[in-house]
Design goal:
Structural class: alpha+beta
Number of helices: 23
Shape: extended
Number of domains: 4
Strand content: 5-15%
Strand order of the largest sheet: 6-5-4-3-7-2-8
Number of strands: 13
Largest sheet: 7 strands, antiparallel
């Protein structure tokens, strides 16, 4: 054995070590016992011999050679294996003793015949080094757990055990990985700019080949989509990815004037200043533009009703309208959201018989009603209904408003004899003070209006015939509103978003790190945003961040509507959207009156801010 390669002379087999310990325990037992083989007494009150299969109370090192000068530890006369261990522990100790005896019998057949129950108990008293260390660390805790209630002792014994014997759930419950969020909430607001950053290169998204651009446009018109793998090693050498990216940049617009940027339209007078507007002083040209625009709007609504177009936007110089097909946004009928609105527009819609609601005002009223039910209804008992959807504030305003008694009669002035000394308010000022709270909503997010069902068709006719839809003066005079849609419609022009990628160096601590950025500008629709993020997910290997710039008037279009439906209850497979984007837009948004501002994808898990 000594001549074999890799043999160590100090190596001992586990069986030899166990045999050596067993022999040492027998010799130690002989030292502690008398000539008759019985253990010597440690105290006068202690029995002279230890009963069979009874383990001493303190199983730790008791020999003088292990504790120099300390002597042997006195045995507790009131404790034995019957009252120091629970029944489960005694069974465990007895099974370990039997297993140890069987293993030693197989190795040393000549010594197995000499074993007796006393030898078994003395051998079981010698614990492993890990158990000795364990007992030395927590002697006081173990002594406190001695009780007649075995269940209490068992709980304490579990705490004493080594952490290696515990389950992984008990050792580190916080090590369980958090759930992976594979999707972010739907955002119905229009974006003006997207800025993506990633540690991997994004240059593959710029300057596509002519064949890739043509194939991407063709796939968009035919509503064909390519399935990409979960991870792409080299995005530059993947033509399917570049074609799909060009497909996601396409949108349709009417009217289309190459020398004018027709989005956004609100507060965009500077964009039109100095531009050529030949229709501004030509009524016949304005009439021609409006008639063509009316045809395009009617075509869009017909496609929406037939579920061939999922949604479209109408952007005027005063407000923006979002039309959604049935089944999108968690709503069963066709819905239209208008933001921002004015009192004049709402009164005109009422005059045309269009029923609408103010979702944010109604939510505020419901929350206030719940507070009133809790005991805070002192001032609002008379405000049971909303006037045009706005909560009643006459009682809260105090001196700012007049009640009905004051409006109907001023007889109390005559009774006091001062009717000639007090200037009476006229009816116009009284009406203006009454309606001051309704006018206060104008041009605010709370003024968003929701129209549902068949009233959306009446709204289309109202928009076509509304004279206030087109500016009569200024740089946008005579120009029809802009129509934006993800699918083709009559009179529409195909446009693509502008994409530009740049590699920059960003300082991280004391070092510089290469960061690749991708900037996309234009009227970015909700489906385009979702499709682009789905393409960057495999190409950037599940790691990128995005900053979203929202068109402010459309940020409130994530509000909930009244009539909700279950997802996928309406068939929209022919609307031309990617199935993943369609599935996201069918769910109701939980953003309320806010919009997404940041999206971060880390290890294929989304986090976002709004």
């Amino acid at each position: 054995m000594s001549q074999q390669a890799g043999y160590s002379p100090n190596f001992k087999r586990p069986a030899d070590i166990m045999r050596k310990r067993w022999r040492r325990s027998r010799s130690d037992a002989g030292v502690l016992s008398g000539p008759s083989g019985q253990e010597s007494t440690g105290s006068p009150g202690q029995s002279g011999s230890s009963p069979a299969c009874v383990r001493p109370f303190s199983p730790g090192p008791l020999l003088s050679n292990q504790r120099s000068g300390a002597g042997t530890k006195r045995r507790n006369p009131f404790s034995s294996i019957e009252n120091t261990y629970s029944p489960k522990k005694k069974i465990h100790i007895f099974n370990d003793d039997v297993k140890s005896d069987a293993a030693d019998d197989q190795q040393d057949e000549d010594m197995s015949t000499k074993r007796e129950c006393r030898g078994v108990s003395s051998f079981s008293a010698i614990l492993t080094e890990a158990e000795r260390h364990e007992h030395r660390d927590v002697p006081s805790k173990k002594g406190l757990t001695v009780s007649e209630d075995d269940s209490l002792f068992e709980e304490e014994e579990e705490d004493v055990k080594s952490p290696l014997l515990k389950s992984p759930q008990a050792i580190a419950p916080a090590s369980i990985a958090p759930p992976v969020c594979t999707e972010y909430p739907a955002d119905w607001s229009l974006k003006t700019r997207l800025l993506f950053t990633s540690p991997l290169t994004l240059l593959w998204a710029e300057q596509p080949k002519a064949q890739e651009e043509a194939l991407g446009l063709s796939q968009h018109c035919r509503a064909q989509f390519t399935t990409l793998p979960h991870t792409l090693q080299d995005p530059r050498s993947c033509p399917e990815l570049r074609c799909a990216f060009q497909q996601s940049l396409v949108y349709w617009q009417h009217p289309s004037l190459p020398w004018l940027s027709l989005f956004p339209r609100i507060n965009a007078e500077r964009r039109f200043t100095g531009k050529s507007t030949p229709w501004a002083q030509n009524p016949s040209l304005q009439q021609s533009l409006m008639s063509e625009w009316s045809v395009s709007l009617s075509s869009l609504y017909s496609l929406l009703k037939a579920r061939q177009c999922p949604y479209f936007y109408l952007c005027s110089y005063q407000f923006t309208v979002l039309f959604r097909a049935a089944g999108l946004g968690g709503s069963s009928p066709i819905t239209a959201l208008i933001s921002p609105t004015t009192r004049g527009l709402r009164e005109a819609m009422k005059a045309e018989g269009i029923e609408f609601s103010l979702p944010l005002v109604e939510d505020r009223r419901k929350s206030k009603d719940l507070q009133n039910l809790d005991g805070q209804d002192g001032k609002s008992e008379g405000c049971s209904e909303l006037k045009e959807g706005v909560e009643c504030q006459e009682d809260d305003e105090g001196e700012d408003g007049y009640n009905d008694d004051e409006d109907s009669s001023f007889s109390w002035l005559k009774e006091m004899g001062i009717q000639d000394k007090i200037k009476k308010p006229d009816s116009i000022s009284i009406q203006l003070r009454k309606e001051s709270h309704t006018v206060a909503l104008d041009h605010k997010p709370e003024s968003v209006v929701c129209v549902e069902g068949s009233h959306t068709f009446t709204l289309i006719n109202f928009l076509i015939n509304c004279k206030g839809l087109v500016a009569s003066a200024g740089s946008q005079a005579g120009l029809p509103p802009t129509l934006l849609a993800p699918s083709a419609f009559r009179g529409a022009t195909m446009h693509t978003l502008k994409a530009r990628s740049v590699n920059v160096k960003c300082q991280v601590g004391s070092t510089f790190q290469n960061i690749s950025s991708l900037e996309i500008t234009g009227p970015i629709l909700p489906s385009s945003l979702h499709t682009i993020t789905n393409l960057l997910r495999p190409s950037q290997k599940g790691n990128f961040s995005a900053t979203l710039y929202t068109h402010a008037p459309t940020a409130v279009m994530n509000v909930h509507t009244k009539q909700e439906c279950t997802p996928c209850s309406v068939d929209l497979s022919g609307c031309g959207l990617h199935p993943a984007s369609l599935q996201q837009l069918q769910r109701p948004s939980n953003l309320g009156k806010t919009a997404l501002t940041h999206i971060n994808l880390n290890n294929y898990s989304y986090t976002w801010k709004n």
